[in-house]
Write a structure and sequence with these properties.
- One of its GO terms (molecular function) is transferase activity.
- InterPro entries: Rhodanese-like_dom (IPR001763), Rhodanese-like_dom_sf (IPR036873), Thiosulfate_ST/Rhodanese-like (IPR052367), YgaP-like_TM (IPR021309).
- This is Rhodanese-related sulfurtransferase.
- It is a single chain.
- This protein is of the alpha/beta class.
- It folds into 2 domains: about 100 residues, Oxidized Rhodanese, domain 1 (3-Layer(aba) Sandwich), CATH 3.40.250; about 60 residues.
- About 45% of the residues lie in helices and about 15% in strands.
- The protein contains 8 helices and 7 strands, in the order E-H-E-H-E-E-H-E-H-E-H-E-H-H-H.
- The strands form 2 sheets. A 5-stranded parallel β-sheet has the order 1-6-5-2-4.
- Helix 6 runs antiparallel to helix 7 and helix 6 packs across helix 8.
- It is elongated.
- The two termini are about 25 Å apart.
- The relative contact order is 0.18.
Length: about 180
């Protein structure tokens, strides 16, 4: 997989004319994103649709960015698996972009998804313990179920709770929320 750091990307295209997609959640994108990026969330990424929408420039490089570089690497792998080789992961992501002093768009901030997952998991564990103590001992099973889910997420990198929370209305942006490149 090809990679590029934000400084080199900016030096290559000082006028900002390159195709950059941001694969973070819509709420993360809304909070802050590179000025020239457009939002294409990883969870709904279809490499063929993205390449078709590029108006005949499917052979030009496609740059992919996220917060720090992990999700964009996953997105690049999706493109490569679909047969699109000219995809480049932006190292360091939006964090590095902002630290380099490159232009960003700031909007409404949202609570990060993992923080929402931690709050929900903690609440469910505590609820299971309290209900198990005061109502019926079987409610302790709720805490065990959440713990097993967290272990599954740790081992596989897949978190069903995060997927559900990401689909909640407060984690959706209305009106697209992307800028044109």
């Amino acid at each position: 997989m090809q990679t590029i750091d934000v400084k080199r990307l900016n030096d290559q295209f000082p006028n900002g004319h390159f195709d950059l997609i941001d694969v973070r959640m819509p709420t993360e994108y809304r909070a802050i994103h590179a000025e020239c990026a457009r939002s294409v969330p990883l969870e709904s990424l279809d490499p063929n649709d993205v390449m078709t929408a590029r108006n005949g420039s499917a052979g030009d490089p496609l740059y992919v960015i996220c917060r720090s570089g992990n999700r964009s690497a996953q997105a690049c792998e999706k493109f490569i698996s679909a047969g699109f080789e000219n995809v480049i992961n932006v190292e360091g992501g939006t964090v590095a972009w902002e630290q380099a002093g490159l232009p960003v768009v700031r909007g409404k901030k949202a609570m990060p998804l993992m923080q929402q997952v931690q709050i929900t998991a903690g609440f469910l564990v505590l609820l299971g313990v309290v209900l198990g103590y005061f109502v019926h001992p079987y409610f302790v099973g709720l805490s065990g179920f959440v713990g097993a889910g967290l272990m599954f997420a740790g081992f596989t990198g897949l978190c069903p709770m995060a997927s559900m929370i990401a689909k909640m209305p407060w984690n959706q942006c209305v009106g697209g929320g992307s800028c044109s490149v």
